[in-house]
UniProtKB/TrEMBL annotation:
GO biological process, one term: mycotoxin biosynthetic process
Family the entry assigns: Belongs to the ustYa family.
Protein name: Oxidase ustYa
Transmembrane residue ranges: none
Organism: Lentinula guzmanii
Lineage of the organism: Eukaryota, Fungi, Dikarya, Basidiomycota, Agaricomycotina
Length: 202
């Protein structure tokens, strides 16, 4: 027969292991419910529409470098890859109301500014109206980026000096991209139609 103190220790160990197991099962079930539920499709467009993507995204660390070189100004294909197919637009709610995710609108704008800069620098605008249309879009994009930067008001300290690198805690953009890809897969080839009260300007 086991002594009372050993019996208590065994019971405590079993209770602890059961608690850890239940917590692991609960965490996995929560993860799967977020991943496979269509919670983002359960409201009507309009007043009840969310202001954020109805999903929680984790964080990661990112090394920020002064001179990266990963995205050369003239590499149109590489720059086009930063925005998902369909411009990063997603559909939410039971009827698939269209939304633009701010991240992809901002990246679209960075790419638009880059394109206009390269085209103007290299004399690629053959007609003044093309240049004016591009610059009108660039003006819109500068304003979008200005407002976005002020909204985030990032206070990360950046070390001074040539080729300095610093690490920053960032929202994991790969999870956001996976969400957009899953959303596109869910809605398939259903056409994305903007409501008539939206301009649709990207």
């Amino acid at each position: 027969m086991l002594s009372p103190s050993i019996t208590v220790l065994i019971l405590l160990a079993l209770t602890f292991l059961t608690t850890v197991f239940n917590a692991a099962v609960w965490l996995r079930a929560t993860e799967l419910s977020h991943r496979f539920s269509y919670r983002e499709h359960d409201y009507d467009y309009g007043e009840m529409a969310p202001v954020q993507v109805p999903r929680t995204f984790g964080f990661t660390t990112m090394a920020i470098q002064n001179i990266d070189g990963t995205y050369p100004l003239t590499d149109d294909k590489k720059w086009a890859s930063i925005v998902p197919p369909k411009g990063g637009f997603i559909r939410l709610g039971p009827v698939g109301a269209p939304f633009s995710i701010a991240l992809y609108h901002q990246l679209h704008c960075v790419n638009g500014i880059r394109f206009a800069y390269v085209a103007a620098r290299d004399g690629l605008f053959k007609h003044a109206k093309d240049r004016e249309a591009a610059f009108q879009h660039v003006n819109h994009c500068f304003d979008v980026l200005r407002q976005s930067l002020l909204c985030k008001a990032d206070t990360t300290l950046i070390p001074l000096g040539p080729d300095k690198q610093h690490t920053r805690r960032c929202r994991d953009w790969t999870q956001i991209r996976a969400f957009v890809d899953d959303n596109h897969q869910f809605w398939g080839d259903t056409p994305l139609q903007l409501p008539s009260n939206r301009s649709g300007q990207a």
